[in-house]
């Protein structure tokens, strides 16, 4: 019988996670109950939010218990089904976690059509990160044609869609990314108007120059010093869409935010959001973005990590910005 | 001929303003041009925003120039008119500034009916502060019946209306004020459910106890340590209406804000606003609040300062929380 490797949260990190916080074990093959489907994981999604699940701190979702399997979105192949809606060989999107095989309730799965797009895109541009970009930019950021939209982590799974959507809405799109290679990709491949390397010593000055008319929408994935550079450039009535704060996920003490005097005098709106509150927008998202991805009008980049056993180092790398594009682990 | 005393901004304050930043001078009586009205100031409004106008820092309105007359809302009596819409003896609301007499464009004035309410209320509960409370709570805070609304500076011109409006909308209203006397007034006279003294050593614990179900709307007039105590108590999807930050108006270095991790995980919306962007809501405000004030259902408290020459010390006192109710200066 096939092995069922799985990666557990061995201990909670203090600050930055390390390989020691994870443990790879072999577990018995799960048996699907009535209504469940046994899936073999093909791709596992790695995302910044997973750092939050490793902590015990109160958040919008329960933490992974110590000793529990790390959670995560997966694309899997059905190997056995006790739900009439699924049959062996179906490719499904679900929340299988960091493991080779998972028995999942059929009602939690969505069948994928491999003829429409590579199935891994259901974890990225056509999945949760894409919907995050869509809801955050369109519904919360409310960009108007001619406005300037800035997005941090611009080459990542969410940021890359935000900037391309902003362009499609007639906005000026300015990315922020870590390193010259990512910045080139964001401008040359994704079509942003500009992209600034936040590692440059004169990053704030470069950002100011790239946003001569100020910033109307800040789609914030990073926080920390990146947001500090954006803050003084925000125009009256600008919207700050707080999607992620990866710069501070490994803080051990609460980090102060920006000076609210600016928020008051410029009448800014700053709003935090979590995509799971907005799943009702999934249909509109798929209807608009699906065809654009299939026609190549919206581009995406995947960073494929080979092998489940490499997921811990890949997540740590993601939190450090070492990835280039949407991180997926090819499990099988 | 009558004297026309006026108070100038003599110098810009560094940190807290002092009496030395102001200068009382006598000026010639103004001559109204065509379309203008000469008014004798009866009441001058003092408001926290005036601290901003004393600084050169970029803001939503131009600063008062050094040597210029301090600006401010006034209720005045028409003593001469070159606008057919006004005649001698009319009582008008305008922006006359810190002086005995002002020649003002007729189109900038609103005629008041002294039979409806004491004319000074046009500077407070039925004027800019009342509209600020209305727009901030109703349009931006969007309170729903059963929710908990917290308002700082609760006995002040804006805060007192916010809490009473919240009660009328079926909310629980919790005030924050400086001192036991103000807190008693807020509960006993204004009808808030509770009011916490921010000067108490256990203020955060008292606030927590008064908001056992958390906070859904924070109407923020103060910022600083008051907001720090509110921040951890905010519920998922809470709204922070940033109306004023009087705790930091005299800062000489930018003050950091609260940790945005909470804004993200609890999906908070924080929005700064300035009432002058919302004057179109004036008619709805007057229609709803006017009758409630006249019937005594909405109460208000004025802190009347006698004499224009006392305006500087009264503004300094206002910034220190020494006032009790809406501050107006009786000029004549």
Task: Describe it.
2 copies of one chain form a homodimer. By secondary structure, chain A is α/β, with parallel strands linked by helices. Chain A folds into 2 domains: 4-124 and 301-330, Quinone Oxidoreductase, Chain A, domain 1, CATH 3.90.180.10; 128-276, 3-Layer(aba) Sandwich (Rossmann fold), CATH 3.40.50. Chain A is 24% helix and 26% strand. Chain A contains 9 helices and 15 strands. Chain A has helices at 50-53, 128-141, 159-168, 180-188, 203-210, 224-230, 260-265, 282-294, 311-319; strands at residues 4-9, 22-27, 36-45, 74-81, 91-94, 101-105, 110-111, 148-152, 172-177, 194-197, 215-220, 234-242, 269-272, 302-306, 326-330. In chain A, strands 3, 4, 5, 6, 7, 14 and 15 form a 7-stranded mixed sheet that branches. In chain A, helix 2 (128-141) crosses helix 8 (282-294). The longest helix of chain A has 14 residues, at 128-141. The two termini of chain A are 15 Å apart. The model of chain A has no long low-confidence stretch (mean pLDDT 97). Chain A binds chain B through residues 52, 58-60, 223, 227, 236, 242-245, 248, 254-261, 263-274, 277, and chain B through 52, 58-60, 223, 227, 236, 242-245, 248, 254-261, 263-274, 277. Strand 13 (269-272) of chain A pairs antiparallel with strand 13 (269-272) of chain B.
Attribute tags:
homodimer; 332 residues; alpha/beta; Quinone Oxidoreductase, Chain A, domain 1; Rossmann fold; 9 helices; globular
Ordered list of secondary-structure elements with their pairings:
Two copies of one chain form a homodimer.
Chain A: E1 4-9, E2 22-27, E3 36-45, H1 50-53, E4 74-81, E5 91-94, E6 101-105, E7 110-111, H2 128-141, E8 148-152, H3 159-168, E9 172-177, H4 180-188, E10 194-197, H5 203-210, E11 215-220, H6 224-230, E12 234-242, H7 260-265, E13 269-272, H8 282-294, E14 302-306, H9 311-319, E15 326-330
Parallel strand pairs in A: 8-9, 8-11, 9-10, 11-12, 12-13, 14-15
Antiparallel strand pairs in A: 1-2, 3-4, 3-6, 3-15, 4-5, 5-7
Helix pairs in contact in A: 2-3, 2-8
